[in-house]
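Priority: medium. Attachment 1 of 2:
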């Protein structure tokens, strides 16, 4: 539940507007998104998990068997469907920001960038084998290269939250709740 009285009118002011979390792999979109959804009384969805349900395969299997281009098509298809609903917190795939068409769906809601330092991402993702773009690569170097190519797209978010390395998921969620009123638009 929302504990800060300043944020207690937030669910009403949001009026069901979806919140889309964007950011690098490991930035905490899923973990934080679940906290945020619970605090707002929203449903939580994760585009990677929805793609896996549609395809009947894991993200790694889709990349290996059908290739990244097919994964990206599925990602756009899933995002288009998700954007038809409301009262959702959506954890998006790290690369969803690369496809211009995806922004037309993301902008149906409010877009929040979880900006996490590369060393912190490395700590979180070391040993994780579920992210195909990080397989067979030196983790810090690969994450740095991806971030350099993507940060200009992540920066198109409505809200950027720079996450201190020691901030727990619940504190990140609380920081989003505190910052959201400042970016609420009149047209939502
Ligand atoms: N604030 C946090 N503090 C410490 N660990 C965290 C925090 N947020 C997430 N983590 C951990 O980092 C890992 C990655 O988190 P998560 O899966 O939520 O990231 P993600 O952004 O959804 O990644 P992806 O885009 O690859 O699915 C998990 O092990 C999670 O427990
Ligand atoms: O950053 C990326 O491009 C990706 C992130 C993951 O969430 C998955 O969407 C997939 O592994 C690709």
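Attachment 2 of 2:
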């Amino acid at each position: 539940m929302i504990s800060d009285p300043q944020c207690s009118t937030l669910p009403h002011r949001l009026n069901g507007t979806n919140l889309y979390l964007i950011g690098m792999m490991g930035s905490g979109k899923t973990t934080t998104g679940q906290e945020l959804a619970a605090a707002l009384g929203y449903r939580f969805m994760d585009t990677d998990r929805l793609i896996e349900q549609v395809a009947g395969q894991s993200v790694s299997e889709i990349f290996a068997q059908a290739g990244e281009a097919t994964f990206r098509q599925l990602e756009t298809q899933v995002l288009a469907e998700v954007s038809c609903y409301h009262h959702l917190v959506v954890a998006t795939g790290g690369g969803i920001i690369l496809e211009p068409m995806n922004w037309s769906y993301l902008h149906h809601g409010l877009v929040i960038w979880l900006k996490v330092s590369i060393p912190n991402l490395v700590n979180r993702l070391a040993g994780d084998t579920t992210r195909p773009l990080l397989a067979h690569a030196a983790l810090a170097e690969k994450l740095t290269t991806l971030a350099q190519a993507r940060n200009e797209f992540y920066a198109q978010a409505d809200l950027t939250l720079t996450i201190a390395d020691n901030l727990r998921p619940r504190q990140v969620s609380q920081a989003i709740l505190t910052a959201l009123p400042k970016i609420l638009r009149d047209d939502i």
